[in-house]
Predict the 3D structure of the following.
Amino acid sequence: MNSGAIAERDIPDIIATAHALADAARAAILPHFRQAGLGVDNKLAVGFDPVTAADRESEAAMRAVLAARRPADGILGEEEEARPGTSGLTWVLDPIDGTRGFLSGTPTWGVLIALSDAAGVRFGLIDQPYIGERFLGGLGEARWSGPHGGGSLRARGTTTLAEATLMTTFPEIGTEAERAAFARVAPEVRLIRYGCDCYAYALLALGQIDLVIEAGLQAYDIQAPIGVIEAAGGVVTNWQGGPVNEGGQVLAAATPELHAAALARLAG
């Protein structure tokens, strides 16, 4: 990804702001993680789509950072109203991607931060506060850091389904038709794992897995992973091979060849 309308001189501040957002979210979330008595509200009349104080405080903390550092930029977040900007740039925030996992005590939820303009995603950051790992891509960056090291991000070179490891968050993916499409891919791969939320996309960029197939996503669920995976050399589209910036059905793959093979099976 090139920087498009983003001036070269602004890139250091954008990247520093992304880190500041992730740091603020960590500080807001971690006091709540694995703590008894955390209140949970359900967004759905039927089903379970939880939101907690940790989600709300994380997004509020990130919005406060943006108000101080980049007030001209727009904001699209999961928990509060969208705020239009005047700069042509929009920060797309998911304060906790994987709230169900957060409530279950698993360390596979994360904070998603993306910067987009009219042309698409320019930068993405995936942060796992409890593990302390951070993955970023775009604007010349493709790297990760954590308590056990760090380095460059690079998707691995898997080209066939038979060699691939596939991840998705829910076995009961999407609608009946979407489940049927997923079931056409699943028997072809070497290994399937479930339940990692946004951490699966980070693992793809890190070169640990090869495919992520999901449905029913929102813009704030996928824009940060797009930035990170594309910077690592991977491919992210919808199930028809088109742009997926606004969410929906997502296919992320380590290589164009693997992407094409999965796309063909999803189509039938």
Remarks:
- The first helix runs from residue 11 to 29.
- The chain has seven helices and 14 strands.
- The mean pLDDT is 95.
- The chain has two domains: 8-152, 161-267.
